[in-house]
Structure formats: C-alpha cells, structure tokens
Amino acid sequence: MVAHPQATLLERARKGDRGAFEALFVPLHLDAFRLAVAMLQRREEAEDAVQEALFKAWRKLDTFRVGSDVRPWFLTIVANECRSLRRTRWWGTLRMAEPTSKVQEWEGATPEQLDLRRTLAALAPDQRLLLVLRYYLDLPFEEMAQILGSTPDGVKSKTFRVLRKLRVANEAVEVTVT
Amino acid sequence: MDEQELRQLFRDTFDRHLPGPDAFRQLLDEGEERRRPRLGLLAAAVAMVLAAAAAALIASHPRVLPRTLPASSRLPASSASPAQTPPTSVSVPPELPTPAVASLLGKVEVASAGDELLRSTDGGRSWSVVYTGLPDHHGNVRDLEWVTDTTIFAATNHGLLVSRDQGVRWVLVSSRGDLYRLDFLSPSVGYVIAGSSPALQDGHVLRTLDGGASWSPYPVGLSVVTWIQWVDATHAWAGGPGGVVATSDTGRTWTLQLRPSSAADAAQVGFTDALHGFALFDRIGGPPELYATADGGQHWERASLPSSEVVGRFVVTGPTALEMVTGGTTSGLCASQDSGSSWSCRKLALGPITPYDWVASGQLRFLVGMRGTEVLLAASSDAGMDWTLRSVDVGPWVRASRAPGAHS
C-alpha cells in the first residue's frame, strides 16, 4: 500500500475523493466514538453526533490548515456536536424515546462504573470533556489545549481542579494525581 | 485510585458501549449522499426556482376557503388548495419538522406540521389546513401561542406569523427567522427566546412593542436564556443553564432566585400566578432537576420526578399541579397534584410516537409528535385515557431537510 502524505489526502478529499476522506478519518473512529459515548452516555446519540461531525468535517475541509494535526481538529467538531445534540433534542422534543434500550445499555455495570457515570453526568460539559480527553482518550495536555482553545498549562490546572471536585463528589472515584 | 486506574475505569465503563469500526464506515456510507452537494445544490436550486414560479402562480389566484377533513381521513400535507399561501420569495435553510400545538380553552386548536398550520374546532376530531407554509417545504413552525381569544402567533424559521381571527387567516408580521419561543403579554407587547440555532447555545430575550414587527434585545441578567414567562405585566421569570431569574417590577430589575445543583444545559419555568410555579433544569447525560415554589420564588423546594429515566418538559395544570411525559418503566403521562411530591402515571396509548409538544386544559389533552415522516395529532377529552389520532404526511419537509446541501 502506498502511504500518502496528509496534504495529498487532504487535497484529494477536498475534491470529493471518498477514499482519501476515509483514509484521513477512519483512523480516528475509536477516539471519536469514545469521546461521544462518554460525553453523551448513550450509543445511539453518540453515533448521531459522530455522523454529524463527519458531515461537518467534510464541509469544513477547506478551512483545515495543511500541516496541522487532523485529530484535534476533528475531535473539536465531535465535542461541539455532543454539546449541540443534547441541547437541540431537549429543546425540540419531549425526549420520551428509547427508555428500554437505555436501561439495558447499563445492565451489568459495576458500582464503580455507575459511580463514574453519575459523577461525569453531574459535571459541566466542559469539565467532563477535560476528563474524557485526558483519561479516556489519553491525550497529552498539548493536544487537549488545541481542542479546548486553551494553553497546555491552563488545561492541566483545570483538569486537576476537576479531579479534586471529583474526589469531593464521590469517594469511589477518588483519584490521586501522580 | 491513581490516574492509571481511572483510565482503566473509563475503559471498563464505556468501551463495551462503543460502536465498532464498521459502524464508522456505515456512518460514512449514510453520509455519502449528503456529501455530494455540488450537483445536488444545482438540482435543488433549479427545483426551488420552479417551485417558486409555480407557487407564484398559485398565489395569484383568489384565496380558497379552508377545507375541513373528515375524522377518518389522513391529512395529505399540501395536497389540496389551502387557505393561504405564504410569501414565495422567502428562502431559508430547511428544518426538520418540530410539531407544535396550542389550544384556546378547548374551543379552537392550532397545530403545526412542518410550517403547515392546521386548525380544529371539534376537539381534534377533524383538522383544516389554514396555512400551507413555504412552497419548497423548508419552513418549520417552532412555537405557537394564543394571546387573546382571537389572536395567535406562530414563530417559524421564516418569520413571525399572526392570526387575528382565531387562526383562520395568517399574515407574516416579521421576517426574523431566529425566534424560537414566544411569550406575548398582549397582541402588541411580547417577548421571545431567540438564537442562532435550535440548540439555543446563544439563547437570548428580545422584546417587541409593536406586535412583532420590530424587536430589540432585552437583557435579563443571564448569559444564556432558554425560557421566559410573564404571568402578568409585572411578574416574570426566565431560565437558562445558569439559573432562574425573576422580576416583580415590570422588568426593571431581575434577581437570581435559583441555581441548579450542578451544571445544567437548559431550563424551563412555568407559573400559574405570581406565587406558584416550577423550574426544571436539564443536564447533559444526567437526570433533570425539578423545583417548586409557592411564594414567587423566594424559596424553591426540590421536587421529585415521576421517573428516574428520561423526562421531558412539564406543563403546569394548576398552582401545585403539573404533568410530564416520561420514559422508563413508567412510560407515559404523569401528573402530580402536590408540587411534585407524588406522581401518578398512565401509559400513553398512542403506539410508537416521539412527542414534541402538548397542552393540557381541564380534561383535554392535545399532543403532537412524530412517527417516521408523519406528524401525529392526538387529542384526548378524558385527561389522556383515550386518544383520537390524526396523521399528517410531512415527508416533503423531512426530505427537504435531508437533501444534499440542505444545511449549508
């Protein structure tokens, strides 16, 4: 297989080459789904958010700077879609659908897992995003800063502040920073 | 627990809910049609020009009286001569239908399907099309509000409509397409939640003093506002992710009364008078928080919810009474008479439906929702025990909103 530099893939994707678009974004599927599932805590909504993010990524390809990293750029879009999706749905509908699937989705979870889920749900979306990016997607602070539009030091101190909040909120997920 | 253990807990908690790589490719496949805009846009533009020309021809004909459909019929949206045709020169991005309904004391009901408006005077057994919406099916009604016995407003993505004859004839009074939630005090004075998108991440209040013809910003002290309600000319409440604010001096000053216990994403307020009301905060990924007050918001008491599962917005039915549509094991219509201390729920016998809007008036209930590409209009005269159901095909609206380049 011939390896294409990102600039070539980008150029081809901008011209509508599906293969090039896939080559750019399929490697990001795990990070994208992880981010959306942990933020929204529901698989169907996570898929919707990722699909909308893919669509917007395609539309915004012209604005992507050649030489930049695709991952933080795409994850920024996914994070925005997660925020937008829930707000739009709450506003637009009475949200009655899929109660059964939601219950089944979390069957078999351990108390620690349920605690983590509840604790995350109680955090502000931006605070939750910090923890998800750092501890679920294993991103370095530099990349988190790109996604959050901040500095690495700023992101680092915010992350630790949220960890402290987590400790106060729930002993089961008390975290010692090493 | 150290950081490494937290990482493991994240994976143990969420990894089993991840879709696989095939799902990602499937999402790419499903989006393929959307990612072909150039040809699609050209075709859409040609279709729009043709539709506009056709509609202009229709508009030049005399107005046809609204038709009343028999109870047993299914309403074919836009298929017959409507009462009124809206401006054809309007061009707005299409929106998925978000059906709305408003009831005038059970005497006249108006509901929306896309931006088509329907009217019933027999308790929802039959509905007449009174406004057809934009010819390209890009329109969407976002909110309906009766202001007097004769005046009703409709916020749409192509402007503000008003009817001054109980919903029979409609005129466009403003072409603002950023209005989402209406709260009029009189036919002249009104407030609205406006924003750049349905998510209302930048939701803010606007005020009109001339029946909606012009609007000006109206700050209430919240950076984001998702709801406002005036109970009279003096008292009002507004809510947003940051909390609930109130005024008791005609809006000269606003005071923060309530904050959510943890970060909220949106808020709703609902009052029956200057003393009794409720506030609901919704959180992303978490259960909402419901509060009740009996002293105008001096004190707010946390109220219980009818279900720990997904819960929607509420409708106030009395000073200490409210109803909610819920999911989970108690899926259905839930009512509380004691400010949310206790609830009784009954199943919604409507089959599969995604509810969007509903009203309660005495024993009457009107609920509108979506099932596939149909808007369902449900009416009950016994507080939700039995329902009369009508459907409206909104396939043209759904297809327009999903067409290539639709969200440009």
Please characterize this protein's 3D structure.
The complex is a heterodimer of chains A (178) and B (408). With 178 residues, chain A is mainly alpha-helical. Chain A has 2 domains: 107 residues, RNA polymerase sigma factor, region 2, helix turn helix motif (Rna Polymerase Sigma Factor, Chain: A), CATH 1.10.1740.10; 71 residues, Orthogonal Bundle (Arc Repressor Mutant, subunit A). Chain A is 71% helix and 0% strand. Chain A contains 10 helices and no strands. With 408 residues, chain B is mostly beta strands. Helices cover 13% and strands 37% of the residues of chain B. Chain B is built from 4 helices and 28 strands. In chain B, strand 23 and strand 24 form a beta hairpin. The longest helix of chain B is centred in the first third of the chain and has 23 residues. Chain B is globular. About 12% of the residues of chain B have low confidence. Classes of the chains: A mainly alpha (178), B mainly beta (408).
Short description:
With 178 residues, chain A is mostly helical. Chain A has helices at residues 6-14, 18-25, 29-40, 43-59, 70-92, 99-105, 111-122, 125-136, 141-148, 152-169.
Indicate the topology.
The complex is a heterodimer of chains A (178) and B (408).
Chain A: H1 6-14, H2 18-25, H3 29-40, H4 43-59, H5 70-92, H6 99-105, H7 111-122, H8 125-136, H9 141-148, H10 152-169
Chain B: H1 3-14, H2 21-30, H3 37-59, E1 101-104, E2 108-113, E3 116-120, E4 128-131, E5 141-146, E6 152-156, E7 159-163, E8 171-174, E9 179-184, E10 190-194, E11 204-208, E12 216-217, E13 227-230, E14 236-240, E15 243-247, E16 255-258, E17 266-271, E18 277-283, E19 286-293, E20 301-303, E21 311-318, E22 321-326, E23 332-336, E24 344-346, E25 354-361, E26 364-371, E27 374-380, E28 388-393, H4 395-402
Antiparallel strand pairs in B: 1-2, 2-3, 3-4, 5-6, 6-7, 7-8, 9-10, 10-11, 11-12, 13-14, 14-15, 15-16, 17-18, 18-19, 19-20, 21-22, 22-23, 23-24, 25-26, 26-27, 27-28
